[in-house]
Amino acid sequence: MPARSSVVESRTNNGDFWKFWTGQTISTLGSSFTSFALPLLIFKLTGSSLFLALTLTATTLPYLLFGLIIGAWADRIDRKRLMIVTDIIRALVVASLPFGALLGFLSVWWIYVVAFLQSTMSICFDAANFAAIPSLVHQEDFVTANGRIQAGYSTAKVIGPLLGGLLIVVVPLPLLFCIDAASFLLSAGSLLLIRTSFQSNPSEQKPPTSLRQDIIEGLRYVLKHPILSWITLLLLLVNFILPTSSAQLVLFAKQWFAASDFQIGLLYASGSLGTVILSLTAKHFHKRWSLGAIALGALMIEGGLTALTALTHSYWALLLLWTLRGGADILFLIHAYSLTQAMVPPRLLGRVITVTRVLTWSTASLGALLGGFVIAQTGQVALIYAVVGLLILGIAFTFFFTPLGQNEQYLAKDTSSS
């Protein structure tokens, strides 16, 4: 037992984890500029709720087209090398936006192409990234590690939109994308400094399998697992409903609260502010409740807070509600990720995360388009936010009566058999 504890301690305090954390936090800071600038740029070019919804379609479509293949492929190759290459490609792709603006050919359709290419590269990166955590920390520290990672990400997401809102006063909006491009290169550099392998066991000899066999194995594992199958169903429903509230945030704030561009940046930053505190304190929740119960409780709170945004015309009340909503959202994400990482063998993690996203993100673009169409036809953006929030609250409550709400017994079985 003492020997095992020393291993846990050494892995938890591994300098490679902090190199990983630093690089990804910087990358998230850069991407937060893009997350703020992209919908604002589309809104300025089109002023349309449908065009805002199409942005989500451009980012989710690659999962439907390539997700299963990329997930299986990412589990077969060097994950760290894959992350470095995709970071470099993402830097070049996002840099095309300010370059296009400079040459005068930037259009909303080119923005969609960039979003599509960026999302495709992100599938590769995220499959490897999700599988890297078990290589850097011990299972007992998954919640702590994911909490620290999300706290770093959330801090970056607070700073990015705030700085972006200030910078667009003095620089053209497309130039903000240069920051994201530079951050991808810094992320690639940090990964080059990491010595730890991101593979489950680099020296392990595995029987040769085809890519098709790997895809089928990932699908079967997710669909037959007593917890992952319920998580997949939950996300299938949530991703059909919830993305509308994010995709239409610029329109909601502009029309319902008459928000300025700077206030839009502040709103995006507020969505990350609550996540910083809750990310760092996430491990304390697990001392009292199961991972699944915390995730579902956080999702209920997120739904309730989303519904409440429709009941106020005060921008400052919206800011507070969106801050609390961001905290609830990250609490759900941390515990859903930690639960999955604890249950799934490391060799399958890349496939599991992409299979889950392929199966569940298929509804995201459809739901966002439907929400955008209804808003365009009725003009009732606040009513849509109320309906979205109440539906999420009800769905999360219902899932407390599934195995996901009592996941500890299943987690104990997986741990004992692994």
UniProtKB/TrEMBL annotation:
Residues 1-406 form the Major facilitator superfamily (MFS) profile domain. Keywords: Cell membrane, Membrane, Transmembrane, Transmembrane helix, Transport. It is a multi-pass membrane protein. The keyword Amino-acid biosynthesis does not apply. InterPro entries: MFS_dom, MFS_trans_sf, TM_effector. It is found in: Cell membrane. The chain crosses the membrane at residues 20-43, 49-70, 91-112, 166-194, 221-242, 262-282, 289-309, 315-337, 358-376, 382-401. Signal peptide: none annotated. Gene3D superfamilies: MFS general substrate transporter like domains. Pfam families: MFS_3. This is MFS transporter. It comes from Ktedonobacter robiniae. The lineage of its organism: Bacteria, Bacillati, Chloroflexota, Ktedonobacteria, Ktedonobacterales.
